[in-house]
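Write out this protein's structure.
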Amino acid sequence: MFSMLRIARASIPRAIYTSFFSTTSAVKQQPNKLTSLSDSYSLITKALLDPSNLVNKDSQPVSDALSRISRLLDYTVPLGKQFRGNAVVSTLKTMEPFLKDPLDDKLLLEAHAVGWSLELAQAALLVSDDMMDGSETRRGKPCWYKIKEIGTTAVNDVMILQNSVSRVLQHFVKDHKEYNNISSLMLDLMDKTLIGQIMDNETNGPGQEKLELSKYTLERYFNIVLYKTAYYTVNHPIRLGFYLAGFSDPEFHSDAEDVLLLMGQFFQVQDDFLDVFGDPAVTGKIGTDIQDGKCNWPVVKALEKADGKQRKTLEQHYGVKSKDSVKEVLRVYNELKIKEEYQEFERKQNELIKKRIQEFANKRKKLVWSEKSFPQNVFTDYLEKLVGRKA
């Protein structure tokens, strides 16, 4: 059951994720303490732009190349919601009572560096994704590759961003005892997300003249969600926080992953549902998944339930940029009671996740070096924000 339910597109509901993984609360130590992820951005870019290991570092060509990288970083990395990076720091802070040693400046900076590594990986994926999709804008600005003097040279910039992930980890985190585990998990994140992108492209990617709704199965959908969303949006950021807190036991991480992937899947199914059925006045956006022909939860569920006539209607109108076609698709959704199907899914998923959280906590009545039991709010605070959300 879980293997089927683990998993779709990487469209992320911003408000919920950022409200849970905010890092604006001050850490009680010294002045000049890092309080939000943005406070450490200049330290990250300074390390990435350090010319000390470059040959002819004082020459104009090298200076020009570093200026290009600086522009790339500032344009693509810090302007998002930073929810993945914030998740790392917030998880570490939640686990603070269980640390062997106090949460000091060095460990906090290491957490920020891991967070920014995730944001660099995200930037690389988005620049690449925009090029493949032929997108025009990102975060209210022209996509990086759409800038006249950039164009297809953005391919090289994607590699620069991806290479920067390991450089940041090596510069800031190499002395952490879990450095190898952190680096391995970051590499695993890129592997899985890129595989998810292949699945997405094979389902509804650039160059396809016509949608093949025969590919829109629950199995394919949930695998896309697993690889393209659940791992790198929920599972890996929180597990990176666990490693930073000193929790490296493989069984601990395996059990945590079982919970986190369910939450990541829940997260994406909700986003798909709200794109189609959400109130734009509440969600802040008008959904376009139907017109864009996205392989999302409502359509794969509808195709699973549809009779011959209903399936023919979906084949004729799904992915067509027409108001009349959208109405026809919604009519089929209403006939098949997709709203009610979602409500039942949400109820069952909520129960399943709560059960897994309790099972996880029961195995850890006392954490390794602490008399305290595992703080379930690492999971439950997030789950409470998901259930019944409208945006």
